[in-house]
Amino acid sequence: MKIKSLDELRKIREEHSNQVRLREYGEMAGDKIEILIGMATCGISSGARETLNAFVNALSSEDIDNIKVVPVGCIGYCHSEPTVQVNIPGQKPVLYGNVKENKVRDIIEKHIKGGKPIENLILHVDFERA
Amino acid sequence: MASTRTNIMVCCGTGCLASESEKVLKNLEVIAKARGYAEEVQIIKTGCFGFCEQGPIVKVEPDNVFYVRVSPKDAKDIIDEHIIKGRKVERLLYMEPNENERIKKQEDMPFYKKQLRVALKNCGLINPEDVYEYIALGGYEALGKAITKMTRDQVIDTVKRSGLRGRGGGGFPTGLKWEITKKQESDVKFMICNADEGDPGAFMDRSILEGDPHSVLEAMAIGAYAIGADKGIIYIRAEYPLAIARLNTALKQARELGLLGKNIFGTDFSFDINLKYGAGAFVCGEETALINSCEGKRGEPNFKPPYPAEEGYWGHPTCVNNVETFANIPSIIMKGADWFAAMGTERSKGTKVFALAGKINNVGLVEVPMGITLREIIFDIGGGIPKGKKFKAVQTGGPSGGVITEEGLDTPIDYDSLIERGSMMGSGGMIVMDEDDNMVNIAKFYLEFTMDEACGRCGPGRIGTKRLFEMLHKISSGKATMADLDALKQLAYMVKDSSLCGLCQTAPNPVISTMKHFWDEYVALVKDEDHPQGEGRYVPKNKIGMKS
Ligand SMILES: Cc1cc2nc3c(=O)[nH]c(=O)nc-3n(C[C@H](O)[C@H](O)[C@H](O)COP(=O)(O)O)c2cc1C
Ligand code: SF4
Ligand code: FES
Question: Is the dihedral of CA A104, A110, A115, A118 positive or negative?
Answer without folding.
Answer: negative
